[in-house]
Write a structure and sequence with these properties.
Low-confidence stretches: none
Number of strands: 12
Order of helices and strands: HHHHEHEHEHEEHEHEHEHEEHEEH
Number of domains: 3
CATH class of the largest domain: Alpha Beta
Keywords: DNA-binding, Transcription, Transcription regulation
Mean pLDDT: 90
Protein name: LacI family transcriptional regulator
Strand order of the largest sheet: 2-1-3-4-5-11
CATH topology of the largest domain: Rossmann fold
Strand content: 15-25%
Helix content: 40-55%
Radius of gyration: 25 Å
Oligomer: single chain
Shape: elongated
Pfam families: LacI (PF00356), Peripla_BP_3 (PF13377)
GO molecular function: DNA-binding transcription factor activity; transcription cis-regulatory region binding
Length: 338
């Protein structure tokens, strides 16, 4: 049978209210009394009924997380980080897959799950200001991603331009002078646009070519997209000595084609990606990559939802998570083991 507060109170010889104060970390409990109750909790194996606690507060204990691509390792790793962050506050996470489609993003943002969730964390690709400006749903909404919104919603982002510039600067510091960009997606994918911009700015600052001949667009974000883009670039007669890809999967696909064409990574072509997904750390050639702080993004997003649930009356804020360039074998050679 489930151990109750009453059982703990009887074992500790205190009132049920005292046990409740300890369980809920009420500060005005003496250390001796807290230790006494905690001992009874440990002996009986008591576990708080989190669901009942949420219901008493008029909540469900569920946060929804809506992402465009659950099959993409970056979003899968981000989802795991959000689940961990929410668990730290006794919340569970309901995952929604939007496919980056406007109609699905609209459906999610307008609250079709409003009766079962306390808050929504949404990473949109297609929604514009006008799509969200008329939102009447009262469930707190926190936005992820790089599209700029002039709306009263908290927003968690990363600095894609600065990150791209750091990756390209790393390639230039290694002596590379013809750096291609793989994964441009004009008018569709805001992060890709910003990463192209960072690539252009850093090459321009170095007085190097940032022409369209070195840019290869992709329809998606997967290995096959990177492979096709790399093949098109080579077939067009361009032989860059470095590649910066808009994500790791595109970079890995590109490295496969380079190997098939007899080009060595990094000796002939250095390759850097973006997202620092696990797969890139365990290939035959480990991948240099920009690593967003996924755990920080998750913590900020969950904290923002809970802050709004607790009635925070403040202007919407845009927070920026940190980034690190992790140098590995695809640019540094076998000496790099990061």
């Amino acid at each position: 049978m489930r151990v109750s507060l009453k059982d703990v109170a009887l074992r500790a010889g205190v009132s049920i209210k005292t046990v409740s104060n300890v369980v809920n970390d009420y500060q005005h409990v003496t250390p001796a009394m807290r230790a006494r109750v905690q001992q009874a909790i440990d002996e009986l194996g008591y576990r708080p009924n989190v669901t009942a606690r949420h219901l008493r507060n008029g909540r469900t204990g569920i946060i929804a997380l809506a992402l465009p691509e659950l099959g993409n390792p970056y979003f899968a790793e981000l989802a795991s980080a959000v689940i961990d962050a929410a668990a730290g506050h006794d919340y569970i996470v309901l995952l929604d897959h939007t496919g980056g489609r406007r109609e699905q993003e609209m459906l999610v943002s307008q609250g079709f799950r409003a009766l079962v969730i306390d808050g929504l964390i949404l990473s949109p690709l297609e929604l514009a200001d006008e799509d969200l400006s008329g939102r009447t749903e009262q469930v707190p909404l926190v936005l992820l991603g790089e599209r700029h919104y002039d709306l009263p919603y908290d927003h968690i982002a990363i600095d894609n331009v600065a990150a791209a510039r750091a990756a390209v600067r790393h390639l230039l510091d290694l002596g590379r002078r013809e750096v291609a960009f793989l994964g441009a997606q004009p008018r569709r994918n805001r992060p890709a646009e910003l990463r192209v911009r960072g690539w252009r700015e850093e090459l321009a600052a170095a007085g190097l070519d940032a022409g369209e001949g070195l840019v290869a667009a992709t329809d998606g974000w997967g290995h096959e997209d990177g492979a096709r883009a790399m093949a098109r670039l080579l077939d067009a007669g361009r032989r860059p000595d470095a590649v910066f890809a808009s994500n790791d999967l595109i970079a890995i696909g590109a490295m496969r084609v380079l190997s098939e064409r007899g080009l060595r990574v990094p000796e002939d072509v250095a390759v850097a990606g973006f997202d620092d997904v696990v797969e890139g750390r365990y290939g035959a050639v480990t991948l240099t990559s920009v690593s967003p702080d996924k755990a920080a993004i998750a913590r900020m997003a969950v904290a923002s939802v809970l802050d709004r649930l607790d009635g925070a009356d403040r202007p919407a804020r845009r927070q920026t998570a940190g980034l690190t360039l992790i140098e590995r074998e695809s640019t540094r050679g076998r000496a790099a083991r990061g």
